[in-house]
Specification:
single chain, five-stranded antiparallel β-sheet, four-stranded antiparallel β-sheet, 2 helices, mainly beta
Length: 343
């Protein structure tokens, strides 16, 4: 099983991967031989631009941002930067009681007051989710969740994708996070396969791209009403992909996904032995590949990580962007420009 790609800046990360998928194995020798990389790894499709963002941070673990602030984890520190200036305003070290861990996700609360971040460690027996008070810098252990992968805020609930298990054989699922200390996280959707990112649109519909090793992959949407009924009924049967709406077949498993303010569904895939791509669903539902490729990363060592958006990627005005990265590279900013009169 492959559940998490090797982070290129952590040479001892192979044994940790209880939920992140990786389709290749790198030896320590080959990793040490990798050159220092500072340029963007993405090549844009026609009509798009790619620029390197925050090149002083080439080792990104996870990130998120508000209208004015950007938060990123570079391995052992969370940095708070001005989103326009790039100037560091504050930083948060690791929790004092939790060492030798690796970041899974970083999600800012809707009001911007807390950073929620997931960590995993060797063996998956003490994988934790913390919140950090942005003002005071105080860490709070919110839950223990083996194999945590991604987190979103859905109305009054917090949803987490991952395993909730230290067994590689257990299927990936989406859970309602229990922050009471009992860690009774409730499984509500079970897509199966390997863990992948989750995203919400403006109407609280949930999106997930499957990540199977052998079975065909697809992009799905679960309607807000289905989620509402599921979350409100603790006795409800777990939902599966048949309970969601199939948006598109996919040529590979999804690593992460996002929905921008224009309801563009964005995601990335790391095709085994081939290109790594940033894509957008084209709005057609059902069987068939209904996707547009926005950028590719074709480097031998490229492996795309988290993807998030600001504004509407369908608009050409400044401030509308997709942000992602390939491990070992700085962040890449993907923007849409007018193609009128251009060839």
């Amino acid at each position: 099983p492959h559940h998490r790609p090797l982070r290129l800046y952590m040479f001892d990360d192979l044994n940790r991967s209880l939920m992140r998928k990786f389709y290749f194995t790198l030896t320590a020798l080959s990793l040490l031989a990798l050159p220092s990389i500072s340029q963007t790894s993405l090549s844009p499709a026609y009509g798009y631009n790619v620029t390197t963002w925050l090149p002083d941070f080439p080792n990104i673990g996870a990130f998120d941002f508000s209208d004015t602030l950007f938060y990123l984890n570079d391995g052992d520190t969370i940095h708070m930067l001005g989103i326009n200036s790039g100037m560091e305003l504050k930083k948060f070290g690791e929790p004092e009681d939790y060492a030798d861990n690796f970041v899974s996700f970083l999600t800012l609360s809707p009001d911007g007051s807390t950073i929620w971040t997931g960590y995993t460690n060797y063996g998956g027996l003490d994988d934790r989710i913390y919140s950090i008070d942005v003002e005071s810098g105080k860490w709070e252990h919110q839950a223990t969740f083996p194999g945590n992968w991604d987190l979103v805020f859905w109305k009054e609930s917090i949803l987490v994708s991952g395993l909730n298990s230290s067994s590689w054989d257990d299927p990936a699922a989406v859970f309602v996070l229990d922050t009471t200390g009992a860690n009774m996280h409730r499984r509500i959707i079970e897509p199966g396969g390997y863990s992948a990112g989750i995203a919400l649109d403006g109407n609280d519909n949930l999106y997930y791209g499957t990540s199977y090793a052998l079975d065909p992959n697809a992009l799905y949407r679960w309607h807000v009403d289905i989620l509402q009924a599921q979350i409100e009924d603790p006795e409800a049967s777990v939902l599966h992909i048949g309970d969601g709406e199939k948006l598109s077949d996919l040529p590979a498993g999804v690593y992460d996904c996002d929905v921008d303010e224009g309801d563009n569904v964005l995601f990335n895939m790391n095709l085994d032995g081939g290109l790594k791509v940033v894509c957008k669903w084209n709005g057609i539902t059902g069987s068939g590949q209904h996707i547009d490729t926005l950028a590719i990363a074709a480097g031998e060592w490229d492996w795309l990580g988290n993807i998030k958006s600001r504004g509407d990627i369908g608009l050409t005005e400044p401030g509308n962007m997709i942000i992602t990265y390939s491990f070992g590279h700085p962040l890449s900013m993907l923007t849409h420009h007018s193609t009128v009169g251009m060839r």
